[in-house]
Amino acid sequence: MCRPSLVQPPEIRRLRDLTRYRRALVQDRTREQQRVEKLLEDAQITISAVLTNLHGMSGRAMMEALIAGQRDPRALAQLAKGHARKKTDRLEEALRGFFTDHHAVILQMMLDNCDRISAQIATLDARIEEAISPFSPQAARLVDIPGVDTVTAAELIAEIGVDMTRFPSAAHLVSWAKFCPQTHQSAGKSKAKGRGKGNPWLAGTLGRIVFANCRSETFLGARYRRLARRRGKQKAIVAIGNSALTVVYHLLSDPDARFCDLGPGYYESRIDKHRRARDLATQLPALTGQQIVIRDGTAIITDAPA
Fold first, then answer.
1. CA 171, 175, 177, 182 torsion: positive or negative?
2. Is the pLDDT of residue 297 over 80?
3. What is the pairing mode between strands 189-192 and 183-186?
4. How many CB atoms lie within 10 A of CB 129?
5. In Å, how far from its chain's centre is CA 94?
């Protein structure tokens, strides 16, 4: 079977350039923020252990005061804002360090870099919003998927386009994205070989969708937790990414399609209760040494035969 041609039209390729560079800048900013935290820890300033977001309003005010020369922990802790003001005692203790002018020079450079990258990301957001406007109906349908925001929708469209006629079915799209397990046979034995290497940018987007759903009370969230318990987290991520990409295919294929979440209890509602009962009855002897015998509709627990 020949592979589908994925040479996208110019407007999709321009959108792809924007979304990929945006993600690269977000990663650069994250690395710079991690350097900030490492520098503060080097000076034994551990406010990141107290504040939820080191680079929020409270953390930023404290860091700017440190750069300006303020070293009094109590005065620095009083710069906390909002809910952080309830943690002033812990902040005061976390701010007792050995911050010097040497640290201040480097911290100022790091914060300047963070601000510069944030400004570039904001500029890209405006350009992405402009570039995605011809595909706003498709993006609006994708945003209905749990875990998909406007940025994620733009990334999905940038990587796979909006013309799903390139793929005969959703399974072809999933296979092209390498978001399905591969099985290899040798000497009559089947060996699992992971999902293969596909588009890393698309894989990253699907991974974020999975992590956004893993604790949510949605069908995808419940499916992730059920599979993670039985098969492990890595296989659950691939399975939920597979499901999410299948949903994306159908939403982009049919302009009248709308996403409707099945709910976290959908799987249980579809289970064959009699089969489930048989499975539990089979597991009982291994756990308790007893067995269940059903007679005339009545369950009787007896000792398992030796």
1. positive
2. no
3. antiparallel
4. 15
5. 31
Q: What is the pLDDT of residues 31-79, one digit of tens each?
A: 999 999 999 999 999 999 999 999 999 999 999 999 999 999 999 999 9
Amino acid at 252: L
pLDDT of residue 109: 97
Residue 79 DSSP class: T
Specify the pTM. 0.81
DSSP letter, residue 144? T
- Greatest Cα-to-Cα distance within the chain, rounded to the nearest angstrom: 85
- The kind and range of the H/E element at 299 are strand 298-303
Q: What angle do CA 257, 260, 182 make, to 5 degrees?
A: 85
Contact 127, 151 (CB under 8 A): no
The label of the residue with tokens 């000792």 reads: 303
**What percent of the chain has a predicted confidence (pLDDT) above 70?**
82
* C-alpha–C-alpha distance, residues 162 and 47, integer Å: 46
Contact 178, 263 (CB under 8 A): no
Alpha-carbon dihedral sign for residues 264, 236, 202, 113: positive
User: What confidence tier does 183 reach under pLDDT thresholds 50, 70, 90?
Assistant: low
**How do residues 238-280 score in pLDDT, each as one tens digit?**
999 999 999 999 999 998 889 888 888 877 777 666 676 676 7
Of 230, 213, 220, 215, nearest in space to 263 by CA: 220
| Rounded-to-integer distance, Cα 98 and Cα 294, Å | 73
Which residue bears the tokens 């294929």? 253
- Tell which residue, 30, 72, 69, 71, has the closest CA to residue 53: 30
